[in-house]
Amino acid sequence: MQNELLAELQARGFINQTSNMDGLNDALNAGKITAYLGSDPTADSLHVGHLVPVMMMRWLQKYGHKPITLVGGATGRIGDPSGRDSGRPMMTEEVLAKNVAGLKKSFSKFFKFGDGASDAIMVDNYDWMKNYSHMDFLRDFGTDFTVPRMLSMDSVKRRLDNGMTFLEFNYMTFQAVDFLTLYREHNCILQTCGADQWGNAIMGIELIRKKLGKEAFVLSTSLITDANGNKIGKSAGNAVWVNEDKTTPYEYYQYFRNISDDLVEKFLKIFTEIPLDEIAKLSALQGAELNVAKKRLAFAATEIAHGTDAAVAAQEAADALFGGGVNSANIPSMEIEMAGDMGILDFLCATKLFPSKSEARRTVEQGGIQIDGNKITDPKSVVAMASEFMVQKGKKVFLKVIVK
User: Can you tell me the distance from the alpha carbon of 347 to that of 354, in angstroms, rounded to the nearest whole number?
Assistant: First the structure.
């Protein structure tokens, strides 16, 4: 009989690949399990691209299983080559510490942490990796990984021709030892991950089998892409962050509110906990009525990440703005220095809405800028000194600008 959790995950479109579906199904039917999800501290927040396996693990906890969130303090010092054409830049200890703290904050938004049977716990692989000398690591694990097997991984193949370092080559061995360590210390039998982590995760299964003679499992999710088919991520420049100091709850709400029509059903299933029968009704809406489904999606996703109050405030701000009002205190804001009247192009670049004057000029000439409800079409216009401004870029980007 198919396990109820697996049925839910399949119906919602989470499952991309599993190492042994029948074995995992039997393990889930036999009782509660422990599973882990890891993330390296390459930034001080998770982003929407990370959230598919996070939401899958959230469902796992809702069904009574125990999640472990792993922050890669050790693997972050190496850099994961998966899905990359070049090595990751080295981070200082200060940056690593800041990023680890930010990831812990992000994870706490999605899981209940504590000492209960199904409460999540958080670990840092630096806590055990720091105890290995290079000689110790080679002695304990060197014979468990063969070079031909490591070279067969896609994450290695794509980098061989453009200078993969020995440092990066070792990444998969670290991740495998993580899985082994969590199996030994917490009886963790499942690793969840994005599709790009499949090869690294499989190495963990193989190491557990060699060292302990036990069966473990991997469950991967599909990757979320933007409108152009690009993986959502920090390096791609299209990240929507979970922590509110990087992406405000209003901006987070607007991201989901403005997705393309063809993604509505998929996003409702993955990023919310709305029942599937209700999702079916929302997804069946057509034309302008589909905006009802988008608003439901945006509210539900924001409520999970930021709480009910923030979701209500974001929704009210959006309704006020799109209804013609511009006095909401909940839209994004920033401060700029302004000694006096300022040319429109300089003003727009100061707000960080545009990276260059040429892009700002083009948008102004196309009628895509409003300040305090007034459309600006002349790139030679001057913005008169004031204490604050409401700037609108296009139809959907709003920014409150406060003068220091």
Answer: 10
Contact yes or no for 46/54 (Cβ under 8 A): yes
User: What are the beta bridge partners of residue 35?
Assistant: 67, 190
Alpha carbon 398 to its chain's center: 23
Neighbours of 127 (CB within 10 A): 12
Angle, alpha carbons 167-168-170 (nearest 5°): 75
SS3 label, residue 125: coil
Task: For residue 22, give every residue at least 6 positions away whose Cβ sits within 8 Å of its Cβ, in sequence order, or none.
Answer: none
Residue at 333: amino acid letter = S
Rg, the chain, Cα only: 24
What DSSP designation does 372 have? T
pLDDT tens string 64-110: 999 999 998 888 776 545 544 444 566 778 888 899 899 999 999 99
The residues, ordered by sequence, that sit 6+ positions from 113 with a Cβ below 8 Å of its Cβ are 119, 120, 121, 122
Q: What residues contact residue 139 under an 8 Å CB cut-off, 6+ apart?
A: none
Contact 218, 191 (CB under 8 A): yes
Considering the entire predicted model, what is its pTM? Answer: 0.78
Q: What residues form DSSP beta bridges with 190?
A: 35, 217
| DSSP of 217-266 | EEEEEPPPB-TTSPBPSTTTT---BSSTTTS-HHHHHHHHHT--GGGHHH
